[in-house]
Amino acid sequence: ETVLTQSPATLSVSPGERAALSCRASQSVSSKLAWYQQKPGQAPRLLIYGASTRATGIPARFSGSGSGTEFTLTISSLQSEDFAVYYCHQYNNWPLTFGPGTKVDIK
Amino acid sequence: EVQLVESGGGLVQPGESLRLSCSASGFTFSTYSMNWVRQAPGKGLEWVSYITSSSGTINYADSVKGRFTISRDNAKNSLYLQMSNLRDEDTAVYYCARYWDSFDYWGQGTLVTVSS
Fold first, then answer.
1. Which of A15, A51, B27, B96 could pair with A31 as two cysteines, CB 3.0-4.6 Å apart?
2. What is the percent of chain B where pLDDT is above 90?
3. What is the pLDDT of residue B101?
4. Alpha-carbon distance A24 to nearest alpha carbon in chain B (angstroms)
5. Contacts of A23 (CB under 8 A, 6+ apart)
């Protein structure tokens, strides 16, 4: 099983600041890595797929990078609506797996 | 507009069965692979099962293999998850999710509670 490790577990950021979230895979997932945002009581929302492609309607302040085993989600300037939990997800190897999540909260 | 609406959740006792449904609209359901993903209360996301558009390939997480069965009816634009021999640890919100280079659309989920 491909284990995804996300760091940090919690990231405290002030509005307007930049945030960088890390996801590391225990084996290569090529570029089949996605990022999701989840707010309390809501379903996850796709942000990034293919490691770096923004999903439809996702603002340009969200960007993804990496390949193989090391990936990063960057939010260039945090807006109030961006405070949430972020999950990475690999869909290259079976079983499909998710990281444990990074909670981005207000500093 | 793509919509996925789950139903069928509820409170059941350990060992009992339950069938979840996911009704799809706003896209050509028969051309997409689909998945079930669950989230235990206060926990992260766990992939449960996958089915291709024609039902030709089906995969399960080890945690549900032999107890859960995924199926679909393309004529009814519906996805199903038959869950049997339910355990306490199956308590979760169950989401159906469309698969297109990741899970691009999700339903709002249906809560399954397994408790005596």
1. A51
2. 98
3. 85
4. 16
5. A4, A5, A6, A33, A35, A66, A70, A71, A72, A73, A88, A99
